[in-house]
Backbone:
């Protein structure tokens, strides 16, 4: 179990935003005591009636009891739910049958307090792997969780593990002229923090969307948002993104993805998801640089994304960022090891506005001093053109610092 | 260009071995001056007559002029050669047509000194990426390289870049009762050292093997030797393994892979390749732990290797080794993210003799104190059984330390 002692706030942190009021959802937090520190570690999101729901879960081969529970409730990745229960401090992952039973009991306890079946309560857990969830601690607080109201920032703090700042994002949009709101929170720093699992994100809108439409919107946005960020390439057993639509805004119900009234809303939702995803990078363990990697001229968007990910996850590239070194040789190395179609005689590498390589050679007029000055910025952009097509993709990442090694290596020593 | 200033010797270093005399090859080193420091940076291996030759090159999509040169000389991965020229200090990678011309001129200069066509001289380069090879510096020393003789340790030192110790291995074997010798050298620390490219390895035997047999032996051994080690998962533009057979031992020529006289020799050759490959891990940048990852119970050997590699290349696993933390939760995470067939209800994780997890749960009798004591060792073994088959594979790696970040991040600062 983590001591819960706070780490220094990331230098890349952003303030928690002012968020609009989303109709049809109430939040409440409580302390189950999974941490020694006096902090809330439970969050219940309860919906008026049943909210439409769509989710994206870890593709991790091992998984966890709460992810299994949600997948069973949302067999096609969408459905409806009355409430969403999240705990921090214990991932209930790699806990076998006893873990599955503990998850079911915690859903039942909250369902009993709400007056609904356990099956209408979704679950997420984050924290230590391999420790059975002590669900009695949750049942003891179920009564407190179904009354009163916490704000989004309190909610974000209650689900944090090694996060150094609470992560929230929101937007207002409209559907057929009626205002709708979108708010969300997320947690995660390394893809897995010290002995902890998990990226979690929960987004609620008061638009009225069918579960199927919601699922399509989430699946479409995921590759450009949560799947476009990487801290260390490590994926957790518990990663979960769930989006809920309460329908309480009074806006017209939407049940077709092609409905033109959905266009501004879809863009706003993607913006909220991207905002949350980028905050995960800003809290990357030990991060001091926020880096956008853009790959252009690729054969396909998927190919561009694989090349960008190869760059973003290369330890040699990431340590060069930490050292403020415009080491384009390592970028070239990472492009090549992606094993994707590239034309090395047309390969170009740019750091912000400065060309490092053009057409497969060092750029004429390469200016080491200007490059070094650029690399001292806190936010960097690296653009690569691989010269074989028209497709592009962006990936966001951070640098790899001694502090990352200290956080992840010195943890128990 | 690197200053050539020496790094502290790796705590995992092994002494350079006493090596047998291989008939039919002579080595010579010289200083071209690619480094400011007074050190040799050229090696010529010259063979009596033509040696059979087989190679494995980087699958890197960008490649380099010397790799292109060798591939053109050995279109099927095998052939014959009179000499092998290696330089350190300049990788001649990402240098376009001028780089290819410089490579050709350096081969021609050595060929002229030896009295053979340029095409009979193979090339390898290691050092800075994106800098054109100054081949005049090599031509100026060609005359010196074709006379006299250096030993294997001098040869290993001449091709080093950021290596902290010279790497050599050898064996004696027999073919049809006649003694044969195998000697080799290698260089490399990170897969790419600071702004440097490359793993290079050169092995010479005085057995008489056809180029095709030699190629088959090398291809068969590569997945279990050089392709079974990883420092940071980064691959270079110049990685090259070349094996030569001079035939000067007097042993019977072998031209069929199924020849039973080849059996002891094949095992000895694989032993030399593995020895060299493991020395690369022992010189992993910043490494303090030498770790063998064994995956058993997999669906296929390739699947076992992919799972082992996922574990070995996970930053969270590698930092846990650095922190002497038996963090089996991270091992489970890395197994899962490999997206290979595993049965999570049968998953077992063992550190040396100590079970951490069995049948998908923490092992009964898990002893944290015993585990912590084990993790303090310099050489560690992690074994994972994924419970779906009979296949197995080993991967060797090292830990990820603050020193790795310092070496690769502080380089130019």
Residues:
């Amino acid at each position: 179990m983590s001591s819960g002692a706070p780490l220094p706030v990331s230098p890349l942190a952003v303030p928690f935003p002012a968020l609009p009021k989303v109709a049809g959802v109430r939040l409440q937090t409580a302390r189950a005591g999974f941490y020694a520190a006096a902090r809330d570690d439970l969050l219940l999101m309860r919906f008026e009636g049943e909210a439409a729901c769509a989710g994206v879960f870890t593709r991790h081969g091992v998984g966890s009891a709460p992810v299994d529970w949600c997948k069973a409730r949302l067999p096609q990745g969408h459905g409806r739910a009355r409430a969403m229960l999240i705990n921090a401090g214990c991932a209930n992952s790699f806990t076998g049958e006893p873990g599955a039973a503990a998850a079911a009991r915690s859903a039942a306890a909250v369902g009993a307090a709400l007056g609904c079946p356990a099956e209408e309560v979704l679950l997420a857990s984050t924290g230590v792997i391999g420790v059975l969830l002590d669900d009695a601690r949750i049942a003891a607080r179920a009564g407190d969780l179904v009354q009163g109201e916490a704000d989004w920032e309190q909610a974000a703090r209650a689900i944090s593990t090694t996060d150094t700042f609470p992560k929230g994002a929101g937007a207002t949009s409209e559907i057929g002229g009626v205002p709708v709101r979108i708010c969300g929170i997320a947690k995660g720093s390394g893809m897995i923090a010290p002995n902890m699992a998990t990226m979690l994100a929960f987004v609620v809108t008061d638009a009225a969307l069918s579960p199927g439409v919601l699922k399509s919107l989430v699946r479409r946005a995921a590759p450009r948002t949560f799947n476009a960020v990487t801290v260390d390439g490590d994926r957790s057993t518990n990663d979960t993104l769930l989006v809920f639509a309460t329908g309480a805004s009074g806006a017209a119900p939407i049940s077709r993805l092609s409905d033109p009234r959905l266009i501004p809303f879809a863009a706003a939702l993607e913006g909220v998801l991207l905002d949350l995803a980028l905050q995960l990078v800003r809290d990357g363990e030990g991060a001091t640089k926020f880096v956008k990697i853009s790959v252009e001229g690729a054969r396909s968007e998927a190919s561009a994304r694989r090349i960008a990910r190869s760059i973003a996850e290369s330890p040699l590239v990431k340590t060069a960022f930490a050292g403020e070194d415009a080491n384009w040789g390592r970028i070239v190395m990472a492009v090549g090891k992606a094993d994707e179609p590239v034309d090395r005689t047309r390969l170009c590498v740019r750091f912000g506005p400065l060309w490092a390589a053009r057409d497969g050679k060092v750029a004429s007029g390469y200016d080491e001093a200007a490059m070094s000055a650029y690399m001292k910025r806190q936010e960097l952009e690296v653009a690569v053109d691989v010269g074989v097509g028209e497709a592009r993709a962006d990936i966001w990442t951070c640098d790899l610092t001694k502090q990352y090694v200290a956080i992840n290596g010195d943890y128990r020593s």
